[in-house]
């Protein structure tokens, strides 16, 4: 019955207890035995296997009998994957009427608490504040409530106090969910409309999608149509996760579940599309999701050119599970054929690269990430550049604009001095600084290119780990930038070019070259690295030739040592690309990221 359904997401800053509370809810109301509980939930690898390649967007259906003895169906969607990208969170929230905002009673409000809560509020969800970890001695729920009211600005008088660890307060949380979160709208008699929240590719079943039925009902065996692409399919199987994958014959209005239509060929973006029935089609699709724009771009290349085709197929499959991933063919004279990929941030880039390597058995090398630049040409045309190599000739550039992020940093007052010093080094502009009881909120405008270097790590290090950061694209702004080319033994290596700020360009390029020098192994000949702007060399360094052959050390020595050494060298060769006759490892491309 629709009036007894509650759909909600759990949002929180990282480590505040999202997973622990989810597990606790499943344990108290879920369809798992004690033994399965420890096998399935706590060991998510099992779940991962069962569901196919990923459990990025976990949805779980549980049944709760309230204190008034009424039975409720609760569908909760764990905010998927990398929580620091509010886009992933916002997709889950689209499928819900409410959100549980968990705040650690010992840590208080942090940057992601604020960002995720605002996303929920913007989407019109009922937000239930929850103070977790009250079992800890240092818990201070009263102060955290004040912080929620001061910093976020939502009412927290009735915030639930609980502990995911001991289970205290969890019943109050369940009761609050059924009283405060509205039941879904719509009814079973309307024409079917279901929104696709997430999809992933399973080698046996093809595309599996997570959907939320907004209107009508969906039956196994019926013919459905994707409203944006007009593609028709037969529903092969549908069901829910409890978290076990359970098949059902019908998904009713308001429910969240999975659907399999035997889709093996992927040509369209599926996430965000609306499913309707062919027999009684709906007139209009549901509004899809706001399209996200990648914030950083990098060239990704297989180290073995023969892997190009597998790589292409892998990207195609992965992108149905990750619609924020962008890619297009890129050809580099140094690295050969690969793809220019767009990511939401560095963490996203790391995750994608390691998923591609792990799940598709690839060996990849990527260039330093670059932000997107807006360039005004002398003919007044504006172009966007996501690749340093596509930078136009200097004489036709009128103006270069770089992306600026708006950042919110939350920190205890003790570290504010350090943080300001750090931000000043990053060409930033302070917008505001507000003191609350235990936390200070600093708002800054910082060039995106500075943030994607190691700003986050530096922020953590100057604040002993206490400061938290959240940022989003704000605007393009004129900036004094140049393209720096790198030459190795006098050959320009296109894949190593970067865009940097003119201020300190001498110093920066010398440091960059030193970092590169550290990363490139010695060869049988001297390797000269140079940095240039246009035709002017501004920095230079030499990697001296190798004197002795590695093996000569073992000459006459025992054979096993020789083998060991060769094996070590082989491992060392991983993620290395031969450019001309010089071996360049992954770290060389990331030198700019490793400068402090
Ligand atoms: P998530 O990143 O939000 O999913 O956080 P987790 O659920 O993984 O929890 C982060 C850490 O906090 C883990 O070490 C948990 O064991 C611990 N934790 C979570 N809830 C509680 C709680 O209520 N009390 C205590 N003492 N520890 C908790
Ligand atoms: Mg977690």
TrEMBL record:
It is a peripheral membrane protein. It is found in: Cell membrane. It comes from the Bacteria. Keywords: Cell membrane, Elongation factor, GTP-binding, Hydrolase, Membrane, Nucleotide-binding, Protein biosynthesis. It catalyses: GTP + H2O = GDP + phosphate + H(+). GTP binds at residues 15-20, 132-135. One of its GO terms (cellular component) is plasma membrane. Its main location: membrane. Required for accurate and efficient protein synthesis under certain stress conditions. May act as a fidelity factor of the translation reaction, by catalyzing a one-codon backward translocation of tRNAs on improperly translocated ribosomes. Back-translocation proceeds from a post-translocation (POST) complex to a pre-translocation (PRE) complex, thus giving elongation factor G a second chance to translocate the tRNAs correctly. Binds to ribosomes in a GTP-dependent manner. This is Elongation factor 4. The lineage of its organism: Bacteria, Pseudomonadati, Pseudomonadota, Gammaproteobacteria, Enterobacterales.
């Amino acid at each position: 019955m629709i009036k007894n359904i509650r759909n909600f997401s759990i949002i929180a800053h990282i480590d505040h207890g999202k997973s622990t509370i989810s597990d606790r809810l499943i344990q108290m109301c879920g369809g798992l035995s004690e033994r399965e509980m420890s096998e399935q939930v706590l060991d998510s690898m099992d779940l991962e296997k069962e569901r196919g390649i990923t459990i990025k967007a976990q949805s779980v259906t549980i049944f709760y009998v309230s204190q008034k003895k009424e039975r409720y169906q609760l569908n909760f969607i764990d905010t998927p994957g990398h929580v620091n990208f509010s886009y992933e969170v916002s997709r889950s929230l689209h499928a819900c009427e409410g959100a549980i905002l968990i705040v650690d009673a010992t840590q208080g409000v942090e940057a992601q608490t604020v960002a995720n809560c605002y996303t929920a509020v913007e989407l019109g969800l009922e937000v239930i504040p929850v103070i977790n970890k009250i079992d800890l001695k240092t818990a201070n729920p009263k102060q955290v409530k004040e912080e929620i009211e001061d910093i976020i600005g939502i009412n927290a008088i009735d915030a639930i106090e609980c502990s995911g660890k001991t289970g205290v307060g969890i019943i109050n949380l369940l009761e609050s969910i059924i009283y405060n979160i509205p039941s879904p709208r719509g009814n079973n008699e309307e024409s079917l409309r279901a929104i696709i929240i997430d999809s992933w590719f399973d080698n046996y079943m093809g595309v599996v999608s997570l959907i939320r039925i907004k209107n009508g009902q969906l039956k196994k065996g019926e013919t459905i149509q994707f409203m944006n692409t007009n593609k028709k399919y037969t529903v092969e199987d549908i069901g829910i996760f409890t978290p076990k994958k359970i098949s059902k014959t019908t998904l009713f209005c308001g429910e969240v579940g999975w659907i399999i239509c035997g889709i093996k060929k992927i040509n369209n973006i599926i996430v965000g599309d609306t499913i309707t029935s062919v027999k009684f089609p709906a007139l209009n699709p549901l509004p899809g999701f706001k399209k996200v724009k990648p914030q950083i771009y990098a060239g990704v290349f297989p180290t073995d050119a023969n892997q190009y085709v597998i790589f292409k197929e892998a990207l195609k499959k992965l992108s149905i599970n990750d619609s924020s991933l962008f890619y297009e063919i890129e050809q580099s004279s140094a690295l050969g054929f690969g793809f220019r990929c767009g990511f939401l941030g560095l963490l996203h880039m790391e995750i994608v690269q390691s998923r591609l390597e792990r799940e598709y058995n690839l060996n990849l090398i990527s260039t330093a990430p670059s932000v997107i630049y807006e360039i005004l040409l002398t003919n007044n045309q504006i172009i966007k550049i996501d690749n340093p190599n596509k930078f136009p000739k200097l004489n036709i550039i009128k103006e270069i604009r770089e992306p600026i992020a708006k950042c919110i940093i939350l920190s205890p007052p003790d570290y504010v001095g350090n943080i300001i010093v750090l931000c000043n080094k990053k060409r930033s502009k302070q917008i505001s600084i507000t003191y609350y009881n235990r936390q200070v909120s600093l708002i800054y405008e910082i060039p995106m290119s500075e943030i994607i270097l190691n700003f986050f790590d530096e922020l953590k290090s100057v604040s002993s780990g206490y400061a938290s950061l959240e940022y989003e694209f704000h605007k393009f702004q004129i900036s004094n930038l140049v393209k720096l080319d790198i030459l190795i033994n006098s050959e320009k290596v296109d894949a190593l070019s970067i865009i940097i700020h003119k201020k300190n360009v001498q110093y920066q390029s010398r440091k960059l070259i030193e970092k590169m020098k550290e990363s490139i192994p010695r060869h049988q000949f001297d390797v000269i690295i140079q940095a240039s702007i246009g035709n002017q060399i501004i920095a230079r360094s030499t990697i001296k030739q190798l004197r002795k052959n590695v093996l000569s050390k073992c000459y006459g020595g025992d054979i096993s040592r020789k083998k060991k050494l060769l094996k070590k060298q082989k491992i060392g060769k991983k993620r290395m690309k031969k450019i001309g006759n010089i071996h360049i490892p992954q770290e060389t491309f990331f030198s700019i990221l490793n400068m402090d």
